[in-house]
Amino acid sequence: MAEAHPPLDVPSRSIPVPSHLSPQAQAVLGTIRLPRTERPPLDDHEAWRRSAREGDETTLELIGPRAAAVPCRVEQREVAGVPAFVVDPDGIAPDDRRVFLDIHGGGLTSGGGDGCRAMAVLATLRNGVRTWSPDYRMPPDHPYPAALDDCVAVYRDLLERHRPGEITVGGVSAGGNLAAALVLRARDEGLPLPAAVVLGTPELDLTESGDSFHTNLGVDNILVGSLMPANLLYAAGHDLAHPYLSPLFGDFSRGFPPTILTAGTRDLFLSNAVRMHRALRAAGVEAELHLIEGAPHGGFFGAPEDLEVELEVRRFIDRHWD
Amino acid sequence: MAEAHPPLDVPSRSIPVPSHLSPQAQAVLGTIRLPRTERPPLDDHEAWRRSAREGDETTLELIGPRAAAVPCRVEQREVAGVPAFVVDPDGIAPDDRRVFLDIHGGGLTSGGGDGCRAMAVLATLRNGVRTWSPDYRMPPDHPYPAALDDCVAVYRDLLERHRPGEITVGGVSAGGNLAAALVLRARDEGLPLPAAVVLGTPELDLTESGDSFHTNLGVDNILVGSLMPANLLYAAGHDLAHPYLSPLFGDFSRGFPPTILTAGTRDLFLSNAVRMHRALRAAGVEAELHLIEGAPHGGFFGAPEDLEVELEVRRFIDRHWD
After folding, report:
1. A23/B16 CB distance under 8 A
2. Integer Cα distance of B243 and B144 in angstroms
């Protein structure tokens, strides 16, 4: 056991907007000032549902217009009993069998429905291939393991139609949690693994033990506080540190696909990405880390800085189709 | 031009020592509390010399014992008029022609002599190959471009004895500045480039424009303030933003070797590493970024977290010998 050390006292500061960033990125850092919202008590399910609806409205305001402009065809279908969106980019070749399985974000409590659809459309734009996106069940009505069950069910269905090398899996934020957890569970259940994994500013540690949960608290202007209430609602009494809830704590020496990780330097989840990168590399897994200078959680809403890293993701995926 | 945005006000905080780190890393974060030292006025050369001597004593206290335990043979010789250390690891094969050209750190104002020797010995231990390390001239007596001239002279000498593929170049902190600048200048002078470059928590931007110069101010407990006085002393009136002084602003589309970058998430130089990674990748250069969770500038003085990343560096170098 290490002895307990005193914390580091950091005085109050005024942190300027870096002038070397793009005007769009500067505007994100300079204008968004979110209040620390109180999360509902765990047993007030109606309040959680209301909070999810409000979150969804904000998400759609932010990404809806960009998604609406993407030339693609969206189909809503049921896959293995799970509602899902299947998005084909316009002009896709009829014999193109590549599929990106996109797990939507939203703090494990929101982001379904139209938000799921919009995120799937944007994933299609980024990756240039067909996207499948499960509109998975969520708390308060369906806590863990419902969401993960749904994601695994859709992955199983994909495996019946595709070779594993034709499938990549990814997600942003809470979607990164479920994407990594689905791969760990698929592996434990003896399923073949996808060609590559994409984890964007991923919520890989529901215990929030990483350093950036403190160093970037108040510095990240998008994630302005702990997500622990949502994590507890999701876990519903299950161990937050179990690898299916916090994939960071998985055993990657037993196999994990090539993985690309992204985050921002102001990101509350910076440590999640950095620690997962190290954990994968320590297990000998091919893994890349790409950070966006100055970015809060989720990046700069499509600024050039984001696009550079999205291009890295696409290059990474394209290198691993098999 | 982007409009000016207001800064972000971050209240004072107590940042705990992450309990998931090794005991040695926790001790670094929990016990080192350096005062913000006043740098001397630029024209008080005697005070700068005294400050460099004090810095050297601290460096030797910190790394001297580790360096003394490394089984190796150190030779002091003059290379192209520059005093240099040549370090052979014990047991090196007589026909092993690989050389790591190590540029020492020390804020561009200190780290010469016994410090240079100790850093070269530790580089030999990390990389497992012969190390050459120029004991380059420094301000106040020899400002820019003396140090860079010395590094380039030694590189030119190496090129007369070795194929470029047998040479890798690297440095930590200010050594990362000079290592990258030497490669840019070698390229501009039409010299062949080394097989790979290693930039450890590199001081690539003497203008200090990166976001982490603010976000990690007071969070990094090793670099506790701006290095601008030393940068100005070094530049001696030259443009701080010139790529030979701030290699971050170089044009990498005209060629740069494969490069591995490291830093800590609490590092004042985090943005230097992140931005250089992006700049190299944007120019199509092979580049990897590896971060140490929770680490201040320079890492954890040999904790397991450091060794993991040092192993990445060695793997990277070993992949590129040619």
Report:
1. no
2. 13
Question: Does B312 contact A at CB distance below 8 Å?
Answer: yes
Chain A residues with beta carbon closer than 8 angstroms to that of B306: none
Calpha distance B289→A202 (Å, rounded): 18
- Asked if B282 reaches chain A (Cβ–Cβ under 8 Å), the answer is yes
Of the candidates A29, A274, A312, which has its C-beta nearest B5's C-beta?
Answer: A29
B102, B136 contact by CB (below 8 A):
no
State the pLDDT at residue B3.
58
Please indicate if any CB of chain A lies within 8 Å of the CB of B94: no
Question: CA–CA distance from A135 to each of A86, A102, A200, A235 (Å)?
Answer: 11, 10, 18, 19
Assign A3 a pLDDT band (cuts: 50, 70, 90): low
**CA-CA distance, B180 to A39, in Å (whole number)?**
48
Q: What is the pLDDT of residues A92-149, one digit of tens each?
A: 999 999 999 999 999 999 999 999 999 999 999 999 999 999 999 999 999 999 999 9
Average pLDDT for B270-293: 98
For residue A1, pLDDT beyond 60:
no
Nearest-by-Cβ selection for A27 from B5, B10, B294: B5
* pTM for this model (two decimals): 0.98
Scan residues 193-252 of A and list those with Cβ closer than 8 Å to B: 209-212, 214-219, 221
**Separation of alpha carbons B193 and B256, rounded Å:** 8
List the structure tokens of A2: 């290490």
For A234-253, what is each residue's pLDDT tens digit? Answer: 999 999 999 999 999 999 99
Angstrom distance (rounded) from CA A3 to CA A23: 46
Q: Compute the count of residue pairs across chains A and B with CB atoms less than 8 Å apart.
A: 174
DSSP lists the bridge partners of residue B9 as A14
Give B176 to chain A, closest Cα distance, Å.
Answer: 19
Is the Cβ–Cβ distance between B169 and B180 less than 8 Å? no
What token pair was written down for A120?
Answer: 């799937």
Over residues B158-197, the pLDDT tens digits come to 999 999 999 999 999 999 999 999 999 999 999 999 999 9
Segment (H or E) for A1: none
Distance between CA atoms of residues A38 and A224, nearest Å:
11
Minimum mean pLDDT range among A59-63, B26-30, B201-205, B254-258 = A59-63
Give the C-alpha separation, A47 to A50, whole Å.
Answer: 5
Asked if the model's pLDDT at residue A60 lies above 90, the reply is yes
**Are B30 and B15 spatial neighbours (Cβ–Cβ below 8 Å)?**
no
Both structure tokens of A152? 């695994």
pLDDT at B291 over 50: yes
* Residue A311 C-beta-side C-alpha neighbours within 13 Å: 13
Out of A212, A219, A292, closest to residue B10 by CB: A219
Check CB contact under 8 Å for A277 and B291. yes
Tell me which residue in A10, A212, A277 faces B13 most closely, judged by beta carbons: A10
| Cα within 13 Å of Cα(B221), Cβ side | 22
Are B130 and B92 a contacting pair, CB within 8 Å?
yes
A282 touches chain B (CB under 8 A): yes
Which residues 132-171 of A are in CB contact (within 8 Å) with B?
Answer: none
ipTM over 0.85: yes
